[in-house]
């Protein structure tokens, strides 16, 4: 197992880093050009746009998933009828592949096939919902589709956290007349920190890996409106046969993820350790 980790993960990471400082295009080369590929990368307007899109997508996706997932978890935690069925329904989208999700939402949002056409057939002739073909709004359709898919995972994580809260806390809050929203804001959410941090890290990984849904829904378009780093890397790796630039982009993406996730992971670990003392 240790050998597999070293060869498959650490080895490929080191190889990618080595290629990123070479002039490799179609095939790897042994030369050394320093940070030349990184300089070219950050002069590439398409790469800068992909980073901007990823930042916008990441903020909206993570916030929406956390909010929707928490609301679903809080709803199910009320011991509602058919709880088992509801948990399955809410979690089921996460079991689908991003490709399947993307294709389904592409049909739903297609102005000629989906919501817009249905509404116009119902008599609303001026109804317009063409975000998926609008450069200014196409990115938000990716957010919509992926939030629908991933919110169930957040719900499951937060529900497990809610079920771990002592029922006596709620009884005491009701006796003291504390509003429910205040209990959630001041007591429950801080207690859910381990579950929230886990959900955040999983969602952050999904953000960085975003590729399938974009390809299935928009192919990065209209134009480059929904271009993301993973698609940029795949295009330059296979479509444009420039593995040096693609490797540099991969390393930048990895460093970005580590810079965001590592401090959160450290803080979560410390919080858990303090809780065990």
Describe what this molecule looks like in 3D:
Pfam families: BPD_transp_1. The protein is mainly alpha-helical. The protein has a single domain, classed as MetI-like (MetI-like fold, Orthogonal Bundle). Helix content is 74%, strand content 0%. The chain is built from 13 helices and no strands. The radius of gyration is 23 Å and the shape is flat. The protein starts with a helix and ends with a helix. The model has no long low-confidence stretch (mean pLDDT 87).
Describe the structure concisely.
It is a multi-pass membrane protein. It is found in: Cell membrane. With 277 residues, the chain is mostly helical.
Q: How much is the average pLDDT?
A: 87
Main sheet attributes: strand count, strand direction, barrel closure: none
CATH superfamily: MetI-like
- Category by helix and strand content: mainly alpha
What's the number of extended β-strand segments? Answer: 0
The number of domains is: 1
CATH class: Mainly Alpha
Q: Calculate Rg over CA atoms.
A: 23 Å
Give the helices and strands as they follow along the chain: HHHHHHHHHHHHH
CATH architecture: Orthogonal Bundle
Helix content: over 70%
Stretches where pLDDT is under 50 for at least 5 consecutive residues are none
Percent of residues in beta strands? under 5%
Global geometry: flat
Tell me the number of helical segments per DSSP (H or I, 4 or more residues long): 13
State the CATH topology. MetI-like fold
Transmembrane segments: 54-76, 88-108, 138-162, 183-208, 243-267
Domain ABC transmembrane type-1: 51-264
Organism: Pseudoduganella chitinolytica
Keywords: Cell membrane, Membrane, Transmembrane, Transmembrane helix, Transport
């Amino acid at each position: 197992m240790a050998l597999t980790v070293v060869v498959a993960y650490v080895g490929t990471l080191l190889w990618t880093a080595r290629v990123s400082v070479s002039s490799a295009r179609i095939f790897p080369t042994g030369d050394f050009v320093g940070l030349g590929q990184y300089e070219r990368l950050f002069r590439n307007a398409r790469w800068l746009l992909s980073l901007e899109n990823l930042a916008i997508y990441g903020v909206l996706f993570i916030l929406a998933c956390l909010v929707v997932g928490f609301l679903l978890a809080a709803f199910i935690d009320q011991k509602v009828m058919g709880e088992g069925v509801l948990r399955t329904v809410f979690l089921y989208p996460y079991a689908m592949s991003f490709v399947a999700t993307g294709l389904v939402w592409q049909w739903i949002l297609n102005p000629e096939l989906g919501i817009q056409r249905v509404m116009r057939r119902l008599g609303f002739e001026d109804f317009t919902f063409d975000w998926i073909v609008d450069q200014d709004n196409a990115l938000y359709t990716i957010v919509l589709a992926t939030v629908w898919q991933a919110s169930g995972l957040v719900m499951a994580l937060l529900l497990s956290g809610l079920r771990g809260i002592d029922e006596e806390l709620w009884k005491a809050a009701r006796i003291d007349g504390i509003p429910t929203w205040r209990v959630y804001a001041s007591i429950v959410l801080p207690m859910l920190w381990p579950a929230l941090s886990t959900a955040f890290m999983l969602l952050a990984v999904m953000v960085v890996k975003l590729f399938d849904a974009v390809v299935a829904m928009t192919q990065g378009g209209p134009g480059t409106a929904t271009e993301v780093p993973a698609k940029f890397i795949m295009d330059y790796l296979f479509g444009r046969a420039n593995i040096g630039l693609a490797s540099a982009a991969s390393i930048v993406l990895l460093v970005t993820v580590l810079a965001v996730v590592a401090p959160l992971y450290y803080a979560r670990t410390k919080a858990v350790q303090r809780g065990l003392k």
